[in-house]
Amino acid sequence: MNADAEFPSLMPETPRSERGFWALIATQFQGAYSDNILRNLLLAMIVGMGLAGSERATFVSLVTFLFSMPFVLFSMTGGWLADRFSKRQVTLWTKAMEIGAMTLATAGLAAQSRSATLAALGLVATQAALFGPSKYGLLPELLPAKRLSWGNGVIELGTFLAIIVGTVTGAALAERFHGREVYAGYLLLALAIVGFFTSLGIDRVPAAAPEKKFRINFLGDLWQQIGLMRRDQALFLAVLGNTYFWFLGSLLFSTVVVYGPDVLHIGRPGPAI
Fold first, then answer.
1. What is the pTM of this model?
2. What's the whole-number mean pLDDT along residues 129-156?
3. CA 20 to 30 Å from 97, out of 28, 29, 234, 273?
4. What structural domains does the chain harbor?
């Protein structure tokens, strides 16, 4: 019997180029950077309106809801897409979707339409939720097993860096283009186009489970996945800790935006959108 066939773990790994991995990192960085620019641009504009505390809190809650809820509603769908189709193909689809969302955001900023800009924010968050599973699922398909921990570290570093820089950039653009926020929209649209082209550099990979069927009841699917995670205590605790971290960060950020003008005296009145 062939020893390599009997012990596949002992077979040498096929050398892989890291070009596709770095294309993924660039694509992910651009996406997270742009998403946070748009969210914080809208939040900074809300602060600059000089609204009463209750009205400002309502708008901040709406922005937070529209940015967060798609991850609850569409992450399972993103997981199905990542299995049913090539993850590279899903990435290209979602980047094209981002271009459409940023086009809507630019139009909304040009027309000072609150509903259009909020709809664009929801679409951007939906795109990110659909892309997320493919983003992480691509790592073992682009890197050898011994480099996976390093690859996870790089993508997490890039994501957090993009969030931090995007937060600062969004506020800076709101101040720099006060009353002319459409210029920020042009920048976001240009970044989305750049992200689409960087995604073309990701290696072509086959679909993991092309026969997988779509489940409409995503809550049932989610509950089933939670049940599987609970069998592994370390994994389940890690998921709980990660969920709590993002919940606390979002809550703290929203609180600062709501109370910042009253307590820290930040912001200045400006035109409503």
1. 0.82
2. 92
3. 273
4. 17-264 (1.20.1250.20)
